[in-house]
Amino acid sequence: MPFKVEVSNLHKSFNGFKVIEKLSFNVEQGEFLCLVGPSRCGKTTLLRIILGLETPDSGKILVDGKPVNLEKHRIGYVPQDPTLLPWLSVYDNIALGLRIRGFPREEIKKQVEELMRLIKIEGFRDYYPHQLSGGMKAYVSIARALAINPDIILMDEPFVNLDAQTRNLLQAELIKLHEYAAKTIIFVTHNIEEAVFLADRILVLTKRPARIKRNISMDMPRPRNRYSEEFIKIRESIEELIKEEFEVEFKA
Ligand SMILES: Nc1ncnc2c1ncn2[C@@H]1O[C@H](COP(=O)(O)OP(=O)(O)O)[C@@H](O)[C@H]1O
Ligand SMILES: [Mg+2]
Q: Does ligand 1 have an atom closer than 6 angstroms to the CB of 184?
Protein backbone atom coordinates (compact mmCIF):
# COMPACT_ATOMS: atom_id res chain seq x y z
CA MET A 1 0.00 0.00 0.00
CA PRO A 2 1.39 3.42 -0.87
CA PHE A 3 2.06 5.62 2.13
CA LYS A 4 1.32 9.16 3.08
CA VAL A 5 4.32 11.38 3.85
CA GLU A 6 4.13 14.32 6.25
CA VAL A 7 6.90 16.88 6.47
CA SER A 8 6.45 19.37 9.26
CA ASN A 9 8.35 22.46 10.23
CA LEU A 10 11.65 21.25 8.80
CA HIS A 11 14.83 23.30 9.28
CA LYS A 12 18.30 22.52 7.99
CA SER A 13 21.49 24.58 7.83
CA PHE A 14 24.98 23.73 6.63
CA ASN A 15 27.75 25.66 8.39
CA GLY A 16 25.35 28.41 9.40
CA PHE A 17 23.77 28.67 5.91
CA LYS A 18 20.05 28.03 6.00
CA VAL A 19 19.10 25.57 3.27
CA ILE A 20 15.59 24.63 4.41
CA GLU A 21 13.46 26.83 6.62
CA LYS A 22 10.12 26.02 8.22
CA LEU A 23 9.13 23.67 5.43
CA SER A 24 5.85 21.78 5.82
CA PHE A 25 3.84 19.78 3.32
CA ASN A 26 2.03 16.46 2.97
CA VAL A 27 2.03 13.94 0.19
CA GLU A 28 -1.10 11.81 -0.02
CA GLN A 29 -1.13 8.05 -0.60
CA GLY A 30 -0.50 7.35 -4.25
CA GLU A 31 0.00 11.01 -5.08
CA PHE A 32 2.53 12.10 -7.71
CA LEU A 33 4.07 15.23 -6.21
CA CYS A 34 6.58 17.33 -8.14
CA LEU A 35 8.88 19.75 -6.35
CA VAL A 36 10.25 22.51 -8.55
CA GLY A 37 12.60 25.23 -7.44
CA PRO A 38 15.72 27.10 -8.45
CA SER A 39 18.97 25.17 -8.36
CA ARG A 40 20.71 24.96 -4.99
CA CYS A 41 17.47 25.77 -3.16
CA GLY A 42 17.68 22.58 -1.10
CA LYS A 43 15.72 19.97 -3.11
CA THR A 44 18.32 17.21 -2.92
CA THR A 45 18.88 17.97 0.76
CA LEU A 46 15.15 17.53 1.38
CA LEU A 47 15.08 14.10 -0.27
CA ARG A 48 18.18 13.06 1.65
CA ILE A 49 16.52 14.11 4.91
CA ILE A 50 13.41 12.07 4.06
CA LEU A 51 15.69 9.08 3.47
CA GLY A 52 17.57 9.62 6.70
CA LEU A 53 20.86 10.35 4.89
CA GLU A 54 20.91 13.84 6.46
CA THR A 55 19.58 14.83 9.86
CA PRO A 56 17.35 17.90 10.06
CA ASP A 57 18.17 20.59 12.67
CA SER A 58 14.53 20.45 13.70
CA GLY A 59 11.19 19.30 12.38
CA LYS A 60 9.58 15.96 11.71
CA ILE A 61 8.99 13.57 8.88
CA LEU A 62 6.30 10.95 9.25
CA VAL A 63 5.55 8.11 6.88
CA ASP A 64 2.20 6.46 7.45
CA GLY A 65 1.99 8.45 10.68
CA LYS A 66 5.31 7.17 12.08
CA PRO A 67 8.95 8.29 11.98
CA VAL A 68 10.75 6.99 8.88
CA ASN A 69 11.94 3.45 9.35
CA LEU A 70 13.65 2.01 6.30
CA GLU A 71 12.93 -1.55 7.39
CA LYS A 72 9.21 -0.97 7.59
CA HIS A 73 8.78 1.72 4.98
CA ARG A 74 10.30 0.72 1.71
CA ILE A 75 11.55 3.85 0.04
CA GLY A 76 12.96 3.68 -3.48
CA TYR A 77 15.50 6.36 -4.35
CA VAL A 78 16.73 7.52 -7.74
CA PRO A 79 19.56 9.89 -6.82
CA GLN A 80 20.55 12.94 -8.83
CA ASP A 81 23.55 11.27 -10.46
CA PRO A 82 22.73 7.63 -10.29
CA THR A 83 25.69 5.37 -10.70
CA LEU A 84 25.20 1.86 -11.91
CA LEU A 85 27.92 -0.51 -10.84
CA PRO A 86 30.05 -0.89 -13.98
CA TRP A 87 31.06 -4.48 -13.25
CA LEU A 88 27.47 -5.69 -12.89
CA SER A 89 25.03 -6.46 -15.70
CA VAL A 90 21.66 -4.72 -15.98
CA TYR A 91 20.04 -7.70 -14.26
CA ASP A 92 22.52 -7.67 -11.38
CA ASN A 93 22.33 -3.90 -10.95
CA ILE A 94 18.55 -4.12 -10.61
CA ALA A 95 18.80 -7.11 -8.27
CA LEU A 96 21.36 -5.48 -5.98
CA GLY A 97 18.94 -3.92 -3.47
CA LEU A 98 17.13 -7.22 -3.07
CA ARG A 99 20.39 -9.12 -2.55
CA ILE A 100 21.50 -6.61 0.09
CA ARG A 101 18.19 -7.16 1.85
CA GLY A 102 18.76 -10.92 1.78
CA PHE A 103 15.85 -11.94 -0.40
CA PRO A 104 15.89 -15.57 -1.56
CA ARG A 105 17.35 -16.14 -5.02
CA GLU A 106 14.14 -17.40 -6.60
CA GLU A 107 12.17 -14.42 -5.36
CA ILE A 108 14.81 -12.03 -6.68
CA LYS A 109 14.68 -13.67 -10.09
CA LYS A 110 10.90 -13.50 -10.24
CA GLN A 111 10.76 -9.88 -9.11
CA VAL A 112 13.55 -8.59 -11.37
CA GLU A 113 12.33 -10.46 -14.45
CA GLU A 114 8.79 -9.20 -13.94
CA LEU A 115 10.04 -5.64 -13.56
CA MET A 116 12.22 -5.85 -16.68
CA ARG A 117 9.20 -7.12 -18.60
CA LEU A 118 7.00 -4.37 -17.23
CA ILE A 119 9.34 -1.61 -18.28
CA LYS A 120 10.36 -3.42 -21.46
CA ILE A 121 14.08 -3.81 -20.92
CA GLU A 122 14.28 -7.64 -20.96
CA GLY A 123 16.43 -7.37 -24.08
CA PHE A 124 19.16 -5.59 -22.09
CA ARG A 125 19.38 -8.11 -19.28
CA ASP A 126 23.04 -9.04 -19.86
CA TYR A 127 24.34 -5.65 -20.97
CA TYR A 128 26.85 -3.75 -18.86
CA PRO A 129 26.38 -0.05 -18.03
CA HIS A 130 29.00 1.15 -20.54
CA GLN A 131 26.98 -0.49 -23.33
CA LEU A 132 23.84 1.50 -22.49
CA SER A 133 22.57 4.85 -23.75
CA GLY A 134 21.83 7.64 -21.23
CA GLY A 135 18.10 6.95 -21.46
CA MET A 136 18.59 3.26 -20.83
CA LYS A 137 20.82 3.97 -17.81
CA ALA A 138 18.12 6.25 -16.39
CA TYR A 139 15.64 3.45 -16.94
CA VAL A 140 17.81 0.90 -15.17
CA SER A 141 18.30 3.21 -12.17
CA ILE A 142 14.54 3.60 -11.92
CA ALA A 143 14.13 -0.16 -12.18
CA ARG A 144 16.69 -0.56 -9.40
CA ALA A 145 14.66 1.77 -7.16
CA LEU A 146 11.45 -0.11 -8.00
CA ALA A 147 12.90 -3.57 -7.44
CA ILE A 148 12.43 -3.42 -3.68
CA ASN A 149 8.71 -2.87 -4.36
CA PRO A 150 8.74 0.50 -2.61
CA ASP A 151 5.75 2.20 -1.03
CA ILE A 152 7.31 5.56 -1.81
CA ILE A 153 9.63 6.58 -4.62
CA LEU A 154 11.90 9.62 -4.36
CA MET A 155 13.32 10.79 -7.67
CA ASP A 156 15.92 13.52 -7.96
CA GLU A 157 15.98 15.02 -11.46
CA PRO A 158 16.22 11.56 -13.00
CA PHE A 159 15.87 12.72 -16.62
CA VAL A 160 18.07 15.79 -16.47
CA ASN A 161 20.84 14.59 -18.77
CA LEU A 162 18.64 13.15 -21.48
CA ASP A 163 17.74 14.57 -24.87
CA ALA A 164 14.19 15.89 -25.18
CA GLN A 165 12.79 12.89 -27.10
CA THR A 166 14.11 10.32 -24.65
CA ARG A 167 12.96 12.44 -21.74
CA ASN A 168 9.43 12.72 -23.13
CA LEU A 169 9.30 9.00 -23.69
CA LEU A 170 10.45 8.17 -20.16
CA GLN A 171 8.02 10.70 -18.69
CA ALA A 172 5.13 9.00 -20.49
CA GLU A 173 6.32 5.59 -19.27
CA LEU A 174 6.60 6.89 -15.72
CA ILE A 175 2.99 8.06 -15.84
CA LYS A 176 1.89 4.59 -17.01
CA LEU A 177 3.87 3.04 -14.20
CA HIS A 178 2.34 5.40 -11.66
CA GLU A 179 -1.16 4.55 -12.86
CA TYR A 180 -0.41 0.85 -12.83
CA ALA A 181 1.48 0.60 -9.56
CA ALA A 182 -0.15 3.45 -7.54
CA LYS A 183 3.01 4.46 -5.70
CA THR A 184 3.48 7.66 -3.75
CA ILE A 185 6.04 9.61 -5.77
CA ILE A 186 8.09 12.67 -4.83
CA PHE A 187 9.79 13.87 -7.98
CA VAL A 188 12.29 16.73 -7.91
CA THR A 189 12.99 18.69 -11.06
CA HIS A 190 13.92 22.15 -12.21
CA ASN A 191 12.29 21.43 -15.57
CA ILE A 192 8.88 23.09 -15.30
CA GLU A 193 7.42 21.45 -18.39
CA GLU A 194 8.31 18.08 -16.88
CA ALA A 195 6.50 18.91 -13.64
CA VAL A 196 3.37 20.10 -15.49
CA PHE A 197 3.38 16.93 -17.60
CA LEU A 198 3.80 14.55 -14.66
CA ALA A 199 2.34 15.86 -11.45
CA ASP A 200 -0.88 15.43 -9.55
CA ARG A 201 0.34 18.42 -7.58
CA ILE A 202 3.27 20.80 -7.91
CA LEU A 203 5.02 22.56 -5.05
CA VAL A 204 7.01 25.54 -6.22
CA LEU A 205 9.88 26.24 -3.83
CA THR A 206 11.56 29.53 -3.12
CA LYS A 207 15.27 30.06 -3.55
CA ARG A 208 17.39 28.96 -0.59
CA PRO A 209 16.27 28.54 2.14
CA ALA A 210 13.58 26.38 0.57
CA ARG A 211 10.06 27.29 1.59
CA ILE A 212 6.80 26.73 -0.28
CA LYS A 213 6.01 29.51 -2.67
CA ARG A 214 2.96 27.99 -4.35
CA ASN A 215 0.90 24.81 -4.17
CA ILE A 216 -0.69 23.92 -7.52
CA SER A 217 -3.18 21.07 -7.92
CA MET A 218 -3.06 19.68 -11.42
CA ASP A 219 -6.48 18.44 -12.41
CA MET A 220 -5.63 18.39 -16.12
CA PRO A 221 -6.54 14.94 -17.54
CA ARG A 222 -3.79 12.64 -18.80
CA PRO A 223 -2.16 12.15 -21.21
CA ARG A 224 -1.38 15.85 -21.22
CA ASN A 225 -0.72 17.76 -24.38
CA ARG A 226 2.37 19.95 -23.94
CA TYR A 227 1.15 22.26 -26.69
CA SER A 228 -2.38 22.85 -25.37
CA GLU A 229 -3.32 26.32 -24.24
CA GLU A 230 -4.04 25.15 -20.69
CA PHE A 231 -0.67 23.39 -20.41
CA ILE A 232 1.27 26.39 -21.69
CA LYS A 233 -0.62 28.74 -19.38
CA ILE A 234 0.27 26.74 -16.27
CA ARG A 235 3.88 26.29 -17.44
CA GLU A 236 4.27 30.02 -18.00
CA SER A 237 2.75 30.94 -14.65
CA ILE A 238 5.26 28.66 -12.88
CA GLU A 239 8.13 30.03 -14.98
CA GLU A 240 7.10 33.47 -13.78
CA LEU A 241 7.20 32.32 -10.13
CA ILE A 242 10.69 30.88 -10.55
CA LYS A 243 11.87 33.99 -12.38
CA GLU A 244 10.81 36.08 -9.39
CA GLU A 245 13.07 33.94 -7.24
CA PHE A 246 16.04 34.59 -9.52
CA GLU A 247 15.35 38.30 -9.48
CA VAL A 248 15.35 38.24 -5.69
CA GLU A 249 18.70 36.47 -5.82
CA PHE A 250 20.27 38.99 -8.19
CA LYS A 251 19.08 41.92 -6.11
CA ALA A 252 20.26 40.35 -2.86
N1 LIG B 1 26.63 18.10 2.84
C2 LIG B 1 26.64 19.42 2.61
N3 LIG B 1 27.53 20.24 3.24
C4 LIG B 1 27.52 21.58 3.03
N5 LIG B 1 26.68 22.21 2.18
C6 LIG B 1 25.76 21.45 1.53
C7 LIG B 1 25.71 20.03 1.70
N8 LIG B 1 24.71 19.54 0.92
C9 LIG B 1 24.17 20.62 0.28
N10 LIG B 1 24.82 21.77 0.65
C11 LIG B 1 24.47 23.12 0.18
O12 LIG B 1 23.09 23.31 0.36
C13 LIG B 1 22.52 24.03 -0.72
C14 LIG B 1 21.37 23.24 -1.32
O15 LIG B 1 21.90 22.10 -1.98
P16 LIG B 1 20.96 21.02 -2.68
O17 LIG B 1 20.03 20.45 -1.68
O18 LIG B 1 21.86 20.08 -3.38
O19 LIG B 1 20.16 21.92 -3.72
P20 LIG B 1 19.32 21.53 -5.03
O21 LIG B 1 19.17 20.05 -5.07
O22 LIG B 1 18.03 22.27 -4.88
O23 LIG B 1 20.08 22.07 -6.20
C24 LIG B 1 23.67 24.31 -1.70
O25 LIG B 1 24.12 25.61 -1.49
C26 LIG B 1 24.70 23.28 -1.32
O27 LIG B 1 25.99 23.76 -1.58
MG1 LIG C 1 19.77 18.71 -6.45
A: no
Half-sphere exposure of 160 (CA within 13 A, CB side): 15
The CA 45 to ligand 2 mean position distance, Å, reads 7
Listed in sequence order, the residues at least 6 apart from 49 whose beta carbon sits closer than 8 Å to its beta carbon are 10, 12, 20, 55, 56, 61
Ligand 1 lined by 39 (C-beta under 6 Å):
yes
In this structure, the residue with its CA closest to atom 27 of ligand 1 is: 40
**Number of domains present in the structure of the chain:** 1
Ligand nearest to the CA of 156: 2
Domain of 60 in residue numbering reads as 5-82+152-251
Specify if 97 maps to a domain: no
Whether 201 contacts 36, CB under 8 Å: no
Is residue 24, in this structure, part of any structural domain at all?
Answer: yes
Answer whether residue 138 is part of any domain.
no
Contact 184, 29 (CB under 8 A): yes
Q: Enter the pTM of the model.
A: 0.93
Q: Is residue 127 part of a domain?
A: no
The per-residue pLDDT for range 183-202, each reduced to its tens digit, is 999 999 999 999 999 999 99
pLDDT, tens digit, 9 for 90 and up, residues 123-167: 999 999 999 998 889 889 989 998 988 989 999 999 988 889 989
CATH number, position 198? 3.40.50.300
